[in-house]
Amino acid sequence: MKYLKTDKQVYAAVQKELARQKDGLEMIASENYASQAVLEASGSVLMNKYSEGQIGKRYYSGNQFIDEAESLAIERAKKLFGAEHVNVQPHSGSQANMAVYLALLNPGDKILAMNLAQGGHLSHGSHLNFSGKIYKVAFYGVDKNTEEINYGNVLEIAQREAPKLIIAGGSAYARQIDFEKFKKIADAVNAKLMVDMAHFAGLVVAKLHPDPIPYADVITSTTHKTLAGPRGGFILCKKYLAEKIDKAVFPGIQGGPLENIIAAKAVCFAEAMKPTFKKYQQQVIKNASVLAATLINNGFELVSGGTDTHLILLKLTNLRLGGQQAEEILARVGIYTNKNLIPFDARKAADPSGLRLGTPALTTRGMKEKEMKIIGNLISELLKNHEDAIIQEKAKKQVAQLTHQFPIYKDLKY
Ligand SMILES: *Cc1c(COP(=O)(O)O)cnc(C)c1O
User: Fold this and answer.
1) SS3 letters for the chain?
2) Labelling 391: which of 240, 252, 258, 366 has CA 20 to 30 A away?
3) Residue of 115, 130, 171, 338 with the most ligand 1 atoms within 8 Å of its CB, for mutation
């Protein structure tokens, strides 16, 4: 970073952030460490190019090499997911969703999606988000007893509400989703099915989560969560929707695509084709299940009683601790998590009753079951004794030991 160094203020922020990432236990379920190849593509000169339009049909000259990079991203994604059509231009997962709505809906049409308060995502019709302002929304949640999706209930709501689009997929749902059942529900009410696999796309690649491809009309995703790529989005769809989706992304909602990020997406998709990626995802799930078991052994309750995926939703209700405070207690010793609503939460989103944990980033560092037990016990001890300074000091040392034992970005020199 020879040149950035001359801007002392920005350089300092970047350097400190690198140190934070190296020295902390990153357990935010939606985060990961992108490879250095992904970082290099993201920081490349492809950033400089305007390439509005599609491959071979750009609005500016000089796009022959940009086309090469974007073709690689598209072809690799098609192969990786077995998709008929791919658009890799959405700047983020939310933009991917926005493009799908623009392509498939008119303002005022109805969406049926998972409630944000029970595991959904802002861009699935929250009143705070464009999706809830432009479209009508009906929500399904989880069953009060199992805290899992009740497909019979989803069908009932779908029949009552007659949505044009049904969305499956969320941000804080720890269980597998049955897309075949969602497809049957969508067919029964003549709705299209969109699957938002932003969180579990990596698990789908590794065949550790049901595959939405046979069932969904359209699939949206991010590349930066379990896929461990650059921060960005993409859309997979059936051929009959290809033109509508492409036009919705550009000129519908975006101008020039971020071709440096698209090149990084291509790198990420190639990395996800390697056999080591499947092993990585298997370890992500093993780690989540050992972490869940460790927390349960320590007397914690988990939403739905456990996990089938990379994420865990921890209930803090019997600890007399709010999510905000829990997040802060752990961050103070370098364990990064996020506060989260739990189903039927009695508290508000700003300080809810849950804490969301994930294993993708720790697994990227090489941590396995043994470390998950240590970390699960550490989290339990910290949350149960949150006023104990000695325990906090001990925890800081343990975090330092673990992060040194499992270094990340070893040869990244800032
Ligand atoms: C993370 C996520 C997104 C999109 O996230 P961005 O921050 O906009 O990239 C969309 N849907 C779901 C379900 C997500 O979890």
Assistant:
1) CCCHHHCHHHHHHHHHHHHHHHHCEECCCCCCCCCHHHHHHHCCHHHHCCCCEECCEECCCCCHHHHHHHHHHHHHHHHHHCCCEEECCCCCHHHHHHHHHHHHCCCCCEEEEECHHHCCCHHHCCCCCHHHHHCEEEEECCCCCCCCCCHHHHHHHHHHHCCCEEEECCCCCCCCCCHHHHHHHHHHCCCEEEEECCCCHHHHHCCCCCCCCCCCCEEEEECCCCCCCCCCEEEEECHHHHHHHHHHHHHHHCCCCCHHHHHHHHHHHHHHHCHHHHHHHHHHHHHHHHHHHHHHHCCCEEHHHCCCCCEEEEECHHHCCCHHHHHHHHHHCCEECEEECCCCCCCCCCCCCEEEEECHHHHHCCCCHHHHHHHHHHHHHHHHCCCCHHHHHHHHHHHHHHHHHCCCCCCCCC
2) 366
3) 171
Residue nearest to atom 5 of ligand 1 (CA): 93
- Which among 40, 52, 211, 301 is annotated as catalytic? 52
Q: Would residue 320 show up in a list of annotated catalytic residues for this protein?
A: no
pLDDT digits (tens, 9 = 90+) for 163-219: 999 999 999 999 999 999 999 999 999 999 999 999 999 999 999 999 999 999 999
Atom of ligand 1 nearest to the CA of 95: 8
* Rounded percentage of the chain residues whose pLDDT exceeds 90: 97
- Best probe residue, ligand 1, of 30, 94, 101 (max atoms within 8 Å of C-beta): 94
| pLDDT tens by residue, 353-393 | 999 999 999 999 999 999 999 999 999 999 999 889 999 99
Catalytic residue flag (residue 347): no
Whether 359 is a known active-site residue: answer no
Q: What is the pLDDT of residues 214-270, one digit of tens each?
A: 999 999 999 999 999 999 999 999 999 999 999 999 999 999 999 999 999 999 999
Question: Does the pLDDT of residue 414 top 80, yes or no?
Answer: no
pLDDT in tens, 54-113: 999 999 999 999 999 999 999 999 999 999 999 999 999 999 999 999 999 999 999 999
Residue 318 scores a pLDDT above 90: no
